[in-house]
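Quick start: load a record and inspect it. Here is Tetratricopeptide repeat protein:
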Amino acid sequence: MGHGCLAGEYQAALDEVYYKRILREDESYSVKKLGAYAQDLSALAAFFPQGWKQPEHTGLSVAEQGWLLAAAAFRLMSLGRLSEALAPRAADLELSIKIKDWKGASITAQNLTDLHLPLGNLEQAAASARQAVAYAQQAEDLFLQMASYASLGRVLHHQGLLEQAATAFKTAEEKQAKDDPESPRLYSVWGAQYCAFLLDLVALVNNHDKYSKAEIAKFGIENLLLDFSAQETIQEVLDRGMYSLEIVQNIGDPLSIALDRLSIARAQAALKQNQAASSSFDLAVKAVEESKRYDFTPSFYLSRANFQLQQGETNKARQDLDAAWAIINANNMELYAVDAHLLEAAYHQLIPNNNKPASTNNKQK
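Running the structure step on this input writes:
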């Protein structure tokens, strides 16, 4: 393919080599089946001689340029290279708006949100999430409206605007039920985002005595606390995880399978089903490692480390913390770093100074 691009035959290289041979057309074989994100990105580099912000446009339509930008950004994101993925995503969004491709604009704005959030760019994440909702409405696409509202809910969750987050997730599920009445609940990535929100809400409620009335008001959860049952909510998360897992296993989406297993593991841990939770955490971590989606992987290590600390398994927790830090530090994932620091504090409370193993990372100290 590189030879074709060097010869200026970009259209032939895209159509005959990359699309037909490497991706095997709509099968996306190289990434979906093999998880060969790095190798696939190397192949795409031939279309970007000036860097990832702009593909060579000789002979390629605006839509094809946007497709290449989206493909490059997705592979960079999957490899954890989030900062590098921002430029091609932003360029792709500009092209989608230029040609009034509102579906494409909504998808790309959601993907921008997924880049900004782990980097800790909460204001930018919120802005792109709201853009995604607006473009999905312009496209009059119920599926994209569901996905964009769930994405907005995730951002609001991390901003601490919990009542607004609950409203966004509720709207997302209403769109899901309207779009697909046979599967009315959120599932896959969006279902996992909602489950994470519900479990964090349970944790907040269980520790509400540690917060002042002013702090409770700041979280915006007064109405959410009315008739709230932590136990019922945890069981709901477990049910939702099982529901989604059955669907995504039939689809064969590795990342969604991993996320659902994580939701199940966290719910089992909250229900004190420790043996089942331990097994589910291991399955979740194995699944996300096999998916090779490094943009999601730190949260799996951190969740399992948190469970291991609760079980007093400090050596295992240390290994997972170090694995998470390696990815966080390499890719400036500030959002995950917050959780990692909190777990470090919990770890150091459990381990006397003279018994602490040397950490493999330095940045978190």
